[in-house]
Amino acid sequence: MSRITVQALSPALGAEVSGMDLREPINRQTFLEIEQAWHQHLVLRFRGQRLSDPQLLALSRQFGELDPPGPNPYGKPFLADFPEINVISNVKVAGQPIGNLGDGEASWHCDMTYVERPPRAALLHALELPDGGSDTYWSNMYLAYETLPAGLKQRIAGRRAIHDASYNSAGMLRKGMKEISDPREAPGAHHPLVVRHPDTGRLALFLGRRRNSYIVGLDLLDSEALLDALWAHATRSEFAFRQQWQLHDLILWDNRCTLHRRDAFDGNARRIMHRTQIKGDAVIAGA
Ligand code: OGA
Ligand code: MN
Fold it and tell me: Which of 279, 97, 234 is nearest to 175 (CA)?
């Protein structure tokens, strides 16, 4: 038996995994325990992990093939030596951002669902943090679907939505994208609003991001009203877990059944996170 312990962090989702040194390869028995905890809690937190970039990559590869970062607003990888690593930071060096998302709020989203095969997982490692704030929240989309009023379930059954590729979660236009005002014309993948998780078989609400979303086949105003209702439900606080970061936290989340957002923070403070993501499978329609 391994010596890890798993402790829930909120009623909805999130668990703390203790007793591991993530710089070491994970043995098979422990890996299976982590995987089971991950499927149960969706977001796992490992505290006190001090990982170099190669160690973060080695850890991440144990969860599957790496998925390179999406295009950032500046058009080249933030870390030339480690292009598989994305940097999430507000820090600027010589006027140039060293990472994505700045210091503003990152509104609710899941990552890169504007592609046909979005990443299944992401790992986010805190390397430098402001004194307070910059909390990140995850929300459980199994719960959101299961508790959705029957009338809303019915209205989205068999429907797909556009997952806009043009703006990132900080509201910045991605490199090479045109500004979009009519969501019906947004570039990006069309995914079922209800998906079946390929590992757990459970149904989840799959919303992606609110901006420029559109439910295919509906009048624009009906789509807007239905999306507003779905988003209001999915982002209710009882479905969420709030992560108050400590230095060297490592968070692993399931990108197929959660949403996440981040609070804005003091622009004079420094926040640096290094992050990887794992390739996902084709999205499966759930209803
Ligand atoms: C991300 C993200 C939020 C944060 O890495 O995908 O949304 O807290 N990060 O930095
Ligand atoms: Mn994100």
Answer: 97
Question: Rounded to the nearest whole angstrom, what is the distance from the C-alpha of residue 145 to the centroid of ligand 1?
Answer: 23
Amino acid present at 76? K
Distances (CA, A) of 140 to 10, 24, 96, 278: 11, 30, 35, 19
DSSP string, 188-236: S-EEESEEE-TTT--EEE---BSTT-EETTS-HHHHHHHHHHHHHHHT-
Closest CA to 260 of 243, 273, 274, 282: 243
pLDDT for the residue numbered 21:
97
Q: Look up 109 and say whether it is catalytic.
A: yes
Strands 86-89 and 100-101: parallel
Q: Per this entry, what is the length of the chain?
A: 287
Distance, CA 110 to ligand 2 centroid (Å)? Answer: 6
Given the residues 41, 45, 109, 191, select the one marked as catalytic: 109
Give the dihedral of Cα atoms 127, 132, 232, 114; nearest 10 deg. Answer: -20
DSSP H stretches of helix in the chain: 28-41, 53-61, 141-146, 150-156, 220-234
5-278 fold: Double-stranded beta-helix (3.60.130)
Cα radius of gyration rounded to whole Å, the chain: 18
Encoded amino acid at 60, one letter: S
Give the tens place of pLDDT for each residue, 159-212. 999 999 999 888 888 888 888 889 999 999 999 999 999 999 999 999 999 999
pLDDT of the residue at 147: 98
Q: What is the DSSP letter of 151?
A: H
Q: Between the ranges 6-20, 65-79, 160-174, where is the mean pLDDT highest?
A: 6-20
Question: Which DSSP string do the residues of 69-89 spell out, in sequence order?
Answer: PPPPTTSS-S-TT-TT-EEEE
32 CB-near residues (< 8 Å, 6+ apart): none
